[in-house]
UniProtKB/TrEMBL annotation:
Residues 1412-1443 are annotated as: Disordered. The gene is COL6A3. Gene3D superfamilies: von Willebrand factor, type A domain. Pfam families: VWA. This is Collagen, type VI, alpha 3.
């Protein structure tokens, strides 16, 4: 940047009365290095610029810097001569996006007359373009080191603009010291702002300091609010700045919740901005409200904010990250006046922006009173208008209706209402429309305003905007209702709609436009913006607001548009609208065919196309013996709605047209449709009278660019004197439309189909007025006429690819191409002879040079060509066959009498090497032209073609007609040979290109003497390796525990200086080495662009480490990190450190070890040999020399199909597998031909839903974001894999970069379509340029082996089908992508990869979980056995007395002693 400033200053004529210069540097804050009047000589300025040092700091506040320059540099005191008319120029160099707002200060500078030139990098170019005075005044560079590349262009712009610049009187912005302002601060004092309140208070003080506070100058008021507002002082409380500042210093935080911002705004309106509180609004003094808000409002803010705006108050909103930014924008006078800071402590960063914005808008507002718009101007420009308001009165607009009503009042206020001036009507509608009053109901403004104020909301649903538009046309814009349309008075309809219409709006809107009504549509965020644009007179007249309460913001814009358009339209109305009778064709015969786009993409606009046909038919004299009409609809293919002889009256055609419905389809094949029409519609059997000489017209209506070639079919139509007229919308290709149309003026481009009425009169005029003579004179046939192709004697052999890659459709296009060529050749035995050979994995002669004597026979043989089929396209075998069998005299070759030509048409890559056949053909004096389509290998074509100019390529075989003229020119030898290049002696070896850094151990491992030996070894190596022809850059560093940078890659440019610097290198010393730290240092400080690394250019990057011991830190990890960036590491060591060297080196061949330092010199030969191979790009795997470097880009579409509504329930493993796949494939590593540069990869997702509509997730490199979007599709199934799915993949890739490698990975639960149809679609996918189609089987996939046959283009391993339950599936797919990238970007036939390592050990166990919940009650157990008898129990209580016993037996007394002794 500093150097750039010096160079620009060097171009200037510096002097006190000539050019003056100032330099300001900024980051978070600004610093002036010198002002415009500091220096008066160029030498002083250059000396100061050379000594500039980088300032640093963050964030980048470009807005504050711009404001600072305006206020402090572009001033008379700093040397600015703006008052003398001297051009004021600001040159901004910005390297990043500003963290503050730049629009306001940039506008302020521009209004001051400063011309701003901006230079940005890729991070800041868009912002710089906004800041610049004009987008053309901004330049962009990739890095600031590229500034010299744009210097001349920049200086040229500077000089040019300086001449054109005229002094701008700097009185546009009102000086704050003179202007009068009433400024009210409304501060958020709720609980959420307690910590930030001191910063708010300080901010108010600083702003007040900038004001001129006096009774007759600036007045200030402060209000604080939370749940309720509180005025600290009013506008008339204080009359001096000191009183205001003292009171502000004493403010205390109010506190409270919730935050009612709406109530506070209403309070300020009703209690502060009034005369009794000191407001001078009625005197025209600007009223300013500065709101500082720290949270979202609890109540509604829309109504009070609108009320303030209606009062003319300029509201500035400042919020923090806790605020609702949308709410602040709605409150603010304009969304750009809503400022934002992270915290209130950052308020100083926006102070200058606020003050600038305040001063900028004051001029616009000073005269703002309740009647803001200058009525007299409007009345003088448009003396008479009929204005109808159509208001949405449905249920959805109940809350917004008062705002609509107020808007109507304000617009009516600006009109000159009178019976002979402006007339007004109002209609309200929902389900049905109702006229509130007509154009002739009232004749005074007062009556209208009174009625509008009394309007009540209608209510009802649904919203039928179409019916309302038709009602207005039929009942309001009529003479009986007061319309003066037939007097030429402009008819205006202002529609206010708050939702999408339930019925069709296109037909009634078109009817109103035909009537000459100018429609302005105003909608909210709930409206359909596209619908409003279609309804409006022009899409630019469709205005939008967030809510109806924001209508004041667009009032002026509406009135400006009305004024501008009325002047344009008034004269047209007096002529066009009166003549509404149908134009008759005077009984002349015409055949008119409409070919209309029926794709799904234009389905919503199809009614507009249908209505256009109806209107054109109305103006034609339809009848079988007069004008006949046919309609054909097309997308992938064409389909006739009715033929030319189907209907004989206008009514029949009209009814048939009304029944037209969009047929749908994804591809727009305009070429195929034109060809079909030529063969099927412009025929006698279809009603065409082409043979009778009746003029034939084709009206094409399309919404996009054709997927196929249109040139051949349209030329065929023009040859038969059919007149094509082409109409296309903004998505159509204007060049293609002009190519289709008979003349460029018959091609019409419109923004959308709603604008079709604008071209109808031209269509009708062309159909009515063009005669057969006009048509024949307008058609100019192609310059390549048969008579002009006198090529002399030639033997031409067409060698065509008939493999499965080409397919039957490809052969058909090749056949048509050869037919077209041969028809223009003088085919006969003594002039041009033709042969055709077809090949795939086998070769077959269709006919030889001497098989046919005359052109008709050759043409007939070509027409019989059919695809022979075959898996491969073996071009090498085919060329050898041609040399042995067809380039022989026995086959008709005339070696001495004619020139020989071999024309190869192929759609694939030959599996065998063809390079040997190029020299062989040239040696035989056979001129070879190679034509490739789709997957053809351009390198192989260049190897066989006579020269690079003889290689012609098209995206697919349908595009062959595009190269016809170039092909004939090559065949005829009319393209001049390329100029000879400088002679290079082939005996000399190729110059070497590389960046090599030597990293040398400087510790005691070497010692001082051995260090000299190592330096000698490096010197010898460089001396042997570096020749004067080479483009080598060398760097050197040595290390111990830290690193010493001796010199960088860009320090020295020649070998002698490098050797001299190495010789001077001194021993460092140190006890141990940190090789890992040193490698990291080299990666961060040597292999970077600033230090000369050319890695971005694909130059080999090499680090050569010379060490004598083991590292004290982790050197292996550091080496792996460096290798991952593409740097190759050579490890040279001394002693027993083989393991250390192997850990450091890129591979075994880049390791060199010696026993002693003296023996290092013996390693030279080994290292030099490996280095030679390295810089030549020779890889150990293939031995194939690669180009130095290529940028490889991959685009991967991941698709899936699951036959269930909830895809994760049906396929439980799909969610986790998809996440792993997306994460893995977005992290590819470098490939062999990119010097380690990682391929650029973009991944998208596609699935085909049940309605046969593709679901797209956009391409991105953010795997997490893509996965979240995929998860959102969880319940939107089922999804299917069929022919339409594969076709959708092809269509999706069509809009992507042509040079990217395109891959489809599809996860399937089985085929959902016919295999043959899917196979054909897969072939078309392959032809279209998709490089690989890979299938992954989900769980329970039926017949997956059959599905796998659809695959093509996988990596170097085809044998293993991929399934979702394969371990490490994500790694498998990453390896597939790596192999595909190697094959497509590097053209290698194989890749050597090591076996995948063993699976790692089990990880540590997780933490112990918390206690589980209580278990359920268990089942009862089995019944147990009898237990043991228990011990005797305690004695019980005495029982009751028993019953008396029986009486005893009586015995004799002499036995009594016996009883007694025994008892």
């Amino acid at each position: 940047m500093r150097d750039f400033v010096q160079r620009v200053v060097g171009k200037l004529n510096v002097g006190g009365d000539k050019d003056r210069v100032s330099v300001v540097q900024y980051g978070r804050d600004q610093e002036v290095h010198f002002y415009l009047n500091t220096y008066t000589t160029k030498e002083d300025i250059l000396g100061t610029v050379r000594s500039l040092r980088h300032r640093g700091g963050r964030p980048l506040n470009t807005g504050a810097a711009l404001q600072y320059v305006r206020d402090n540099v572009f001033t008379a005191s700093s040397g600015s001569r703006s008052q003398e008319g001297v051009p004021q120029m600001l040159i901004l160099l910005s390297g990043g996006r500003s963290s503050d707002n730049v629009d306001i200060p940039a506008s302020a500078l521009k209004e001051s007359g400063v011309l701003i030139f901006g230079i940005g990098t890729r991070n800041s170019s868009r912002e710089v373009q906004r800041i610049a005075t004009d987008p053309s005044f901004s330049q962009s560079v990739s890095e600031f080191t590229d500034l010299p590349s744009i210097q001349e262009q920049f200086f040229s712009s500077l000089i040019t603009v300086q001449v054109e610049a005229t002094p701008i009187t700097p009185t546009v912005i009102v000086d704050q010291s003179i202007a009068r302002k009433d400024v009210v601060f409304l501060l958020d004092g709720s609980d959420g702002t307690r910590n930030g309140f001191p910063a708010m208070r300080d901010f108010v003080q600083r702003v007040v300091e900038k004001l001129t506070v006096e009774e007759n100058r600036d007045r200030v008021s402060v209000v604080q609010y939370s749940r309720e507002p509180e005025a600290h002082f009013y506008l008339n409380t204080y009359t001096t700045k000191e009183d205001v500042v003292d009171t502000v210093r004493g403010l205390r935080h109010k506190g409270g919740r919730p935050l009612n911002t709406g109530a506070a705004l209403q309070y300020v309106r009703d209690n502060v901005f009034i005369a009794s509180s000191g407001s001078r609004r009625l005197e025209g003094v600007p009223q300013i409200l500065i709101l500082l808000n720290g949270g979202r409002s609890f109540d509604n803010v829309d109504t009070p904010a609108s009320a303030l705006k209606e009062l003319g108050v300029l509201v500035f909103g400042i919020g923090t990250r806790s605020s609702d930014s949308r709410e602040l924008q709605k409150i603010s006078y304009d969304p750009s006046y809503a400022l934002s800071v992270s915290e209130f402590t950052d308020l100083p960063n926006v102070q200058q922006q606020l003050l600038s914005a305040m001063s900028t808008v004051i001029v616009q507002v000073t005269t703002m009173t309740p009647t803001v718009i200058p009525t007299i101007l409007v009345e003088s420009q448009a003396p008479r208008r009929d204005v109808v308001f159509l208001l949405d009165g449905s249920d959805g607009t109940r809350s917004g209706f008062p705002a609509m009503r107020d808007f109507v009042q304000r617009v009516v206020e600006t009109l000159g209402v009178d019976e002979n001036k402006d007339r007004v009507a109002v209609v309200q509608y929902s389900r049905d429309p109702a006229a509130q009053f007509y154009l002739n109901t009232y004749t005074t403004k007062g009556e209208i305003l009174n009625t509008v104020r009394g309007l009540r909301h209608k209510g009802g649903r649904p919203l039928n905007t179409g019916a309302a538009l038709q009602y207005v046309r039929d009942n309001v814009f009529t003479a009986s209702s007061g319309s003066r349309r037939f007097e030429g008075v402009p008819q205006l309809l202002i529609l206010l709609s708050g939702g999408r219409s339930f019925d069709n709006v296109d037909t009634p809107a078109s009817a109103l436009k035909e009537l000459g009504v100018l429609i302005f549509g105003i909608g909210t965020r709930s409206s359909d913006s596209k619908e409003l644009q279609r309804i409006s007179h022009d899409p630019s007249y469709a205005l939008s607001v967030s809510d109806f309460t924001d209508l004041p913001n667009i009032q002026q814009q509406l009135l400006s548009s009305v004024e501008a358009i009325v002047i344009d339209v008034t004269p047209e109305l007096t002529t066009d609208l009166v003549t509404t009778t149908i134009v008759s064709t005077g009984g002349e015969k015409r055949d008119v065919v409409f070919l209309i786009d029926g794709t799904t993409a234009v389905r919503s606009e199809f009614p507009a196309i249908r209505d256009m046909i109806g209107r054109v038919v109305e103006k034609l004299d339809v009848g079988l013996d007069r004008v006949r009409v046919s309609v054909v609809q097309y997308s992938d293919s064409a389909k006739v709605a009715f033929h030319l002889n189907k209907h004989s009256t206008k009514d029949e055609v009209r009814q048939a047209t009304r029944k037209l419905q969009s047929s749908g389809g994804n591809r727009l094949n305009t070429g195929r449709a034109l060809e079909w029409i030529s063969k099927n519609i412009y025929q006698r059997s279809a009603g065409s009278r082409i043979e009778e000489g009746v003029p034939q017209f084709l009206i094409l209506v399309t919404g996009g660019k054709s997927n196929d070639d249109v040139s051949g079919p349209v030329n065929q139509l023009k040859t038969h004197l059919v007149v094509p007229l082409a109409i296309g919308t903004k998505n159509a290709d204007p060049n293609e439309l002009r190519q289709i149309a008979l003349k460029p003026e018959l091609a019409y481009s419109i923004k959308n189909f709603g604008q079709l009425p604008t071209v109808e009169q031209q269509l009708i005029a062309s159909v009515n007025t063009m005669t057969t003579t006009d048509i024949s004179s307008s058609f100019v046939p192609s310059v390549l006429d048969i008579d002009n192709l006198n090529m002399g004697r030639k033997d031409i052999i067409f060698l065509i690819d008939g493999s499965d890659t080409t397919g039957s459709s490809g052969i058909a296009h090749i056949r048509d191409f050869i037919l077209n060529i041969v028809q223009q050749l003088d085919v006969q035995l003594d002039q041009v002879r033709v042969a055709v050979v077809q090949y795939s994995d086998k070769v077959k002669t269709e006919f030889s040079l001497n098989s046919h004597n005359k052109k008709p026979a050759v043409l007939s043989a070509i027409k019989r060509l059919r695809q022979q089929g075959g898996r491969s396209s073996d071009l090498a075998n085919a060329i050898e066959y041609v040399i042995r069998n067809e380039l022989k005299a026995s086959a008709g070759v005339r070696l001495a009498e004619a020139s020989q030509h071999l024309v190869v048409l192929t759609g694939g890559r030959s599996p065998t090497d063809v390079s040997v056949y190029g020299p062989l053909l040239k040696g035989s004096r056979v001129n070879c032209i190679g034509i490739g389509a789709g997957g053809a290998d351009s390198r192989q074509l260049n190897q066989i073609a006579t020269s690079s100019a003889d290689v012609l390529q098209v995206p697919a075989f349908p595009g062959l007609p595009v190269i016809k003229e170039r092909f004939i020119a090559r065949l005829n030898g009319t393209i001049p040979e390329e100029a000879p290049t400088d002679f290079v002696d082939p005996s000399l070896p190729k110059a070497k290109v590389a960046d090599i850094v030597f990293l040398v151990d400087g510790s005691i491992n070497l010692g001082k003497d051995n260090f000299k030996e190592v330096m000698g070894f490096i010197l010898n190596l460089i001396d042997l390796f570096f020749t004067e022809r080479d483009n080598l850059q060398i760097g050197l560093a040595h290390y111990t525990t830290d690193v010493t940078d001796v010199f960088y890659l860009n320090t020295y440019k020649n070998k002698d200086d490098i050797i001299d610097a190495i010789s001077r290198s001194e021993y460092k010393g140190g006890r141990r080495i940190n090789t890992g730290t040193a490698i990291h240092h080299v990666q961060e400080n040597h292999f970077i662009k600033d230090k000369g690394s050319r890695k971005d250019e694909g130059i080999p990057q090499i680090l050569m480490i010379v060490t004598g011991g083991r590292s004290a830190d982790d050197s292996k990890t550091a080496a792996l990190a460096l290798k991952a960036t593409g740097v190759r590491i050579y490890a040279v060591g001394v002693g027993d450190i083989e393991d250390e060297l192997n850990n450091l080196a890129s591979e075994a061949s880049t390791v060199a070890r010696a026993s002693t330092f003296v023996e290092l010199s013996e390693l030279n030969e080994q290292i030099l040999e490996t280095l030679e191979d390295e810089v030549k790009g020779i890889k150990l795997c293939t031995g194939v020399s690669q180009e130095p470097s290529k940028t490889c880009s991959l685009e991967v579409l991941v698709g899936f199909d699951v036959s269930s509504p909830n895809i994760f329930q049906a396929q439980r493993i799909l969610e986790s597998r998809m996440g792993a796949i997306l994460q893995r494939i977005t992290k590819m590593t470098g490939i062999s031909c990119s010097s380690g540069q990682i391929p650029l990869i973009q991944v998208g997702i596609l699935a085909m839903d049940a309605a046969s509509e593709p679901v797209h997730l956009e391409f991105t490199d953010n795997a997490d974001m893509l996965f979240e979007a995929f998860r959102a599709l969880r319940t939107r199934g089922p999804y299917f894999l069929n022919a339409k799915t594969i076709d959708a993949y092809g269509s999706r890739f069509k809009s992507r970069a042509a040079d990217a490698v395109k891959v489809v990975i599809h996860l399937t639960d089985g085929l959902d379509g016919q295999y043959n149809e899917m196979k054909r679609q897969v072939e078309e996918l392959k032809i279209s340029g998709v490089n690989s189609f890979i299938l992954v089987g989900l769980e329970r996939v039926p017949r997956f082996e059959e599905a796998v046959l659809l695959e093509f283009g996988r990596g170097f391993r085809y044998t293993r089908p991929l399934r979702v339950n394969v371990m490490d599936l994500d790694y498998e797919l990453l390896e597939e992508l790596d192999n595909i990238a190697e094959r497509e970007c590097c053209a290698v036939p194989c890749k050597c990869t090591g076996t995948r390592g063993d699976r790692g050990a089990f990880g540590l166990g997780g933490l112990k979980g918390g206690p589980g919940g209580a278990g359920g009650i268990g089942h009862p157990g089995d019944e147990g056995g009898h237990g043991d008898r228990g011990p005797p129990g305690v004695n019980g209580t005495q029982g009751f007395q028993g019953c008396p016993g029986q009486r005893g037996i009586k015995v004799s007394t002499h036995l009594a002693p016996l009883y007694q002794s025994t008892g």
